Amino acid sequence: MSTQKLPNDFVWGYATASYQIEGSPDADGRLPSIWDTFSHTAGTTKGGDNGDVATDSYKRWKENVALLKQYGVNAYRFSFSWSRIIPLGGRNDPVNEAGIKHYRALIEELVSNGITPFVTLYHWDLPQGLQDRYGGWLNKEEIVQDYVHYAKLCFTRYGDLVKNWITHNEPWCVSVLGHATGVFAPGHKGNKEHWIVGHNLILAHAYAVKLYRDEFKASQGGRIGITLDLHWQEPWDDSPANVKAAQRGIDFKLGRFADPIYKGYYPETIKSIVGDRLPEFTKEELVVVKGSSDFFGLNTYTTQLVKEGGDSEIQGNVKYTFTRPDGTQLGTQAHVPWLQTYAPGFRSLLNYLWKTYNMPIYVTENGFPVKDEHILPLEQVVHDTDRIEYYDRYLNALLQAATEDGVPVKSYFAWSLLDNFEWADGYEPRFGVTHVDYKTQKRTPKESVEVVKRWFTEHIASS
Ligand code: PNW
């Protein structure tokens, strides 16, 4: 075990997202987002669950900050609900001062408790008004302008206190789950729209960053970037076909965003398969897109083993499994089918990103939903052995990447502060280090809270 430590300015804490925790959909002038509409449509979420109440955090935000304080963090990542701030969403629509005030109070409470706010501007809850008006992320001319206008308002109103901005959370999910498989809002299906949406998300991100750099950065002194998601993809065996397939899988999930943003072009593997369904950037756009992130924001949960084949173009025609050639499983199974604990993959991923993109890395999400936590009695839930194992292994992998491999990892946000609304899976999977009783809204810390706190106390150098 490495005895080296993370630098004393290492950022750590917990992450959440507006629609997953806030509830109070109609409070103080908020109008619906596409997730309100989607989750209220029959057949879209497990058990018909929706975010109407969630963890009631629009009202209980002070209690959340008190928990963060108790948990010893130095940072908290959360997102704004766009339709609280501009209820209809657009650049000519009214601004809602009550919504602005809510986040101002939260930010001030965090700062006065010594907790650095990391704000995500867009964590999937597009104002329904923009979806209805012009098709949301499908309409390049409109959405880029409206998003930049919204971002500007946020920089103006909060930038004196917020120094860490994330433009988008996981654009892959918005593109593919929202517009290709249709399991997330707005629920569209097909093989074309998601390339357009992904392209427009990149442009909206890039123009918001340009605005921040041109008009705010000098006076406010913050940083701004995007958070992308990837399960590390390891070839199933060392056959050349599977090794090639793993890279193609990475390109289709991560490279489709990271390569334009950090290098200035789409991966060749994508161009050759997708052809003219892949939009092109104009010369002027490319100047804005290339280099448009101050850091590499990373959400990652697991590793997948990759085999050549299959006919899923969205995945780059590769197949995924957790079963090794010798028949064993990669790691401990989580409640959701897509997640097994495999920390060496996390270390490999951090190294890959550093080598490929040469940017400081902010881990903005990482976490584990324990199997059957939703039906276990509370005294068993708080004893969250599998989550403890997960954090212990992933944090040590991060430490090894940072100290032994020299990867500049700057932050670690565990997902999540609270059990919450897990999108199409409803309230069944529980990712929180805090148990939430959804009948009473009572919060109970699980044992992982202390394990994570102790780990950071022991592994961050003192100043
Ligand atoms: C992320 N998948 O989403 C999101 O940023 C969070 O809002 C979410 O709660 C968290 O991870 C846990 O799921 C994902 O299907 C959604 O592979 C789906 C997948 C991965 C991440």
Major β-sheet annotation: 8 strands, parallel, barrel
Ligands bound to this protein structure: 4-nitrophenyl beta-D-glucopyranoside
Helical/strand content category: alpha/beta
CATH fold descriptor: TIM Barrel
Strand arrangement in the largest pleated sheet: 1-2-3-4-5-7-10-11
Write the layout of secondary structure elements.
Layout: E1 11-15, H1 18-21, H2 34-39, H3 61-71, E2 75-79, H4 82-85, H5 97-112, E3 116-122, H6 128-134, H7 140-158, E4 164-169, H8 171-179, H9 193-220, E5 223-229, E6 232-235, H10 240-263, H11 268-274, H12 283-289, E7 296-299, E8 303-308, E9 318-321, H13 343-357, E10 361-365, H14 378-381, H15 385-403, E11 409-415, E12 434-437, E13 442-445, H16 448-459
Parallel strand pairs: 1-2, 1-11, 2-3, 3-4, 4-5, 5-7, 6-8, 7-10, 10-11
Antiparallel strand pairs: 8-9, 12-13
Bound molecules: 4-nitrophenyl beta-D-glucopyranoside.
4-nitrophenyl beta-D-glucopyranoside binds next to loops.
Catalytic activity: Hydrolysis of terminal, non-reducing beta-D-glucosyl residues with release of beta-D-glucose
EC number: 3.2.1.21
Protein name: beta-glucosidase
Q: Can you summarize this structure?
A:
Its EC number is 3.2.1.21. The chain is 41% helix and 15% strand. It has 463 residues and is α/β, with parallel strands linked by helices.
